[in-house]
Each structure stands twice: as C-alpha cells, then as structure tokens.
Amino acid sequence: MEIIGVDVEQPGDRPRIAYNFCLGERHTMRILLILASLIVGTIAGIYLFGMIWRTSAPEGSMAMFVGGGTPVVLGALAFLGTKNADGQRPSLGNVRTWFALLGIVAAAAGLFVLLIVALFLTVQRG
User: Fold this and answer.
1) What's the CA gap between 33 and 92, in Å, rounded?
2) Which of 37, 49, 51, 122 has the lowest CB atom count within 10 Å?
3) Where does the sequence pass through the membrane (predicted)?
C-alpha cells in the first residue's frame, strides 16, 4: 500500500520548480488582456500625441507625457482590474505587484517610443 502525501509526485504531475517559473495556462487570458490594453493605449496615445503636437508644437514635452502616459495608465488599470490565478486581485502592498507595474510601464514606454520613431521615419521618407 502506497501512502500519498503532499510532497509525493504523481505520474501526471508537473515538476513543482518548472511550474513555478513558467507562466502556466491560468495566466494566459490576463496577459492577453494586458497586452491588448497596451496596444490600444499606444494607439490612443499616438493619436493624442499627434493632436497635442499639431495644436501646440512648442509643447513637445506635454505631448510626449500625455501620449506616453496613456498606454501606461491603461496597462496598469488592466493589471489591477484582473484577478490572479488564485482569484484575488493584486494588492498594492505587495512587492510583486510593484515589480509587475514597473514591467508594464517599461513595456508601454518602449512600445510607444518605438512606434513614434517608426511613424516619424515613415512620414519623413514618405
């Protein structure tokens, strides 16, 4: 007779270490929602950037701030609005939440800058 305990692995179980380091199936929808909000926010940010830039060209810093802040805000709201795999929303008192928000800010800023540079190069050569 075999005793099945907490630490005994069954033949169909995933290794615990590999599962903790990989994303797992339960996070896929959350990641897709955050990526979609970053893309929508970047498109809206570029539109706002263009509108502010066209109306007040000397205020380029304001256009970059509003345009670049739009995908950051939408991505952060999507992250904070969705639930974890365990059914809990992220807590602002948790360090992991702040690192995730930092990653979202970096991804949004990088995507915005890359698309602005691509847009300027396209218009300039156009």
Assistant:
1) 20
2) 122
3) 31-50, 62-80, 100-123
